[in-house]
Amino acid sequence: MTVLAVIGGTGADYFPGRKATQEHVTANVWGQLSAPIEEWEAHGHRVLFLARHGTGGGIPPHRVNYRANLQGLREAGAEQIIALNAVGGISISAGKLMVPDQLIDYTWGRGHSYYDSAEAPIEFIDFTKPYSDILRNGLIKACARAGVAVTSRGTYGVTQGPRLETAAEIDRLERDGCDVVGMTAMPEAALARELGIPYAALAMTVNAAAGRDATHGIHADIARHIKSTVADAARVIDAYLGAL
Predict the structure, then answer these.
(1) Is 197 helix (H, G, I), strand (E, B) or coil?
(2) Residue pair 202/101 in contact by the 8 Å Cβ criterion
(3) Which CATH number do you get for residue 85?
(4) What is the pTM of this model?
(5) CA-to-CA distance for 133 and 218, rounded, in angstroms?
(6) What are the residues whose beta carbons fall under 8 Å from the beta carbon of 37, sequence distance 6 or more?
(7) How many angstroms separate the CA atoms of 154 and 232, rounded?
(8) Which pLDDT tens digits describe the chain residue by residue (244 residues)?
(9) What is the distance between the alpha carbons of residues 184 and 10, in angstroms, rounded to a whole number?
(10) 198 prior amide bond cis, ω within 30
(11) Domain coverage including residue 19
(12) Domain tally, the chain
């Protein structure tokens, strides 16, 4: 039996199949988790689900207690983590999924590490590949089984938020090599690496990034695509669990 954790982002309330039979504690040495960790079984495996932005989605990206969240999942037994991230598309069309293989961190002032005390020994983690190749490949294969189109690699640019970016900032991210832009991949990915938990992401492109498509507007795009991309991500996760 594998213990798979799913961290839901924007649109977590739309994630189908949530049927919690157990909830875990909501605080640890790092403080309060965003929400109770929900647990259920699927395909003979334990599933842990945590709403990154809290119940109802009211916690902004820069105020998420990433350290408490990841530590809480570890204490609940998480052996793998799949992160769901709603993102804006730079080279990826709205309504599509991407399994990123790289990221660039533009955030600041967040609790970026568990090595936060002069008394504790520090480990300089290898972050050359921020996402687990094994877990990424499993998700890509699951997309095929679920019949969900996916871009199998790309770079996620992580901005501070909560405001959205200017068109010039998106131009800069594109020059830097970013394919999508979002606000929650860091420090989450690095903290998972510090804890030794394999971590990968399903980036759900819910809108065209600033300056990329003025036809509908960013918020209208999100309203059009959030439910369908969350549903696609849930199908992929179900297919992934079914193949474990």
Answers:
(1) coil
(2) no
(3) 3.40.50.1580
(4) 0.94
(5) 32
(6) 5, 23, 24, 26, 48, 49, 50, 72, 73, 76
(7) 19
(8) 899 999 999 988 888 877 777 778 789 999 999 999 999 999 999 999 999 999 888 999 999 999 999 999 999 999 999 999 999 999 999 999 999 999 999 999 999 999 987 777 888 999 999 999 999 999 999 999 999 999 999 999 999 999 999 999 999 999 999 999 999 999 999 999 999 999 999 999 999 999 987 677 888 888 889 999 999 999 999 999 999 9
(9) 10
(10) no
(11) 3-243
(12) 1
Cβ count near 203 (within 10 Å): 31
Two structure tokens written together for 204: 């759900």
Residue with tokens 């919690």: 20
Cα(227)–Cα(145) distance, rounded to whole angstroms?
20
Distance CA 52, CA 193 (A): 18
In the numeric block, which tokens belong to residue 29? Answer: 């040495």
Name the β-bridge partners of 64. Answer: none
What is d(CA 177, CA 82) in angstroms, rounded to the nearest whole number?
A: 23
| Distance in angstroms (rounded) separating the CA atoms of residues 242 and 4 | 12
What is residue 215's three-state secondary structure?
coil
For every residue of 56-124, DSSP letters joined together read: TS-S-GGG--HHHHHHHHHHTT-SEEEEEEEEEESSS-TT-EE--SEEEE---SS---S---TTSPP--
